[in-house]
Amino acid sequence: MIELQKVGKQYGSGDSAVHALREVDLQIGAGQFVSIMGPSGSGKSTLLNLLSALDRPTSGRVILDSRDIGALGDDEVTLFRRTRIGLVFQFFNLLPTMTAVENVLLPRMLGGRATASDRADAETLLRQVGLGHRLNHRPGALSGGEMQRVAIARAFVTAPAIILADEPTGNLDSATGSEVLRLLREQAETRGATVVMVTHDARAAAVGNRLIEIRDGRIHRDGAAQPLATSAGTAALALG
Ligand SMILES: Nc1ncnc2c1ncn2[C@@H]1O[C@H](COP(=O)(O)OP(=O)(O)OP(=O)(O)O)[C@@H](O)[C@H]1O
Ligand SMILES: [Mg+2]
Are residues 88 and 155 in contact, defined by beta-carbon separation less than 8 angstroms? Predict the structure, then answer.
């Protein structure tokens, strides 16, 4: 479903070149929930940008849904991203003039007008992330965590095959964070969506079924996610 072949990403050139990723080989199957951890600057967001086809590799190939992203034109890549990928990024990219419901509906409206049932789906998703009381608020009237939850609902609204999340629980209190993690896991388990989540939080990472550690642009460790030993924190994340 997702395959990286010897993927490198270099920013700049000469003395100022930054090798954000080096020779990364990776395969992620449908329905996997992969957590990605690693120090700041190790290349995690760069990796998500390549997986979302927001950016192209300097070397190697990125294959999504058996399509070589490098071989697609810009319009094809954009269409692919809109229809097949749900993005939850650190900066939520909500449109300030639209309400929460309208922001969530946006990915559906790009193919034409949203129907009443689209709107009902958007409201259901917003209720699931605990925003039933904020349906008609604009982003400027929402807190950081509330905006993040709108972005999460928006990422789910097209039932995308691939969900990419960069620190989706970064701005959330632990109860809301646990709910967001539960929803992400549900997308993988019930629909077979592939979820790739970058996090600095070991407790969040443990919700996935595979953990990849990146250091200095390379895969340092790749294995089963370790369920954490029992602690108050894990109890808060306990998932059925
Ligand atoms: N547009 C860019 N131009 C130049 N260098 C960049 C660019 N984007 C990222 N980098 C560099 O590439 C490296 C990897 O950055 P990346 O954003 O992938 O790190 P990260 O692992 O996501 O870190 P964090 O945990 O802080 O978000 C860093 O050294 C960063 O400075
Ligand atoms: Mg980052």
Answer: yes
**What domains does the chain contain, in order, with CATH numbers?**
2-11+18-237 (3.40.50.300)
CA distances from 94 to 9, 19, 50, 147, 178 (A): 28, 31, 21, 8, 22
Ligand 1 within 6 A of CB of 18: yes
Task: Report pLDDT digits (tens) over 159-168.
Answer: 999 999 999 9
Structure tokens at 109: 């409206």
Which atom from ligand 1 is nearest to the alpha carbon of 21? 14
Confidence of residue 114 (pLDDT cuts 50, 70, 90): confident
* pLDDT reported for residue 237: 54
Looking from the CA of residue 9, the nearest atom of ligand 1 is: 12
pLDDT at res. 235: 45
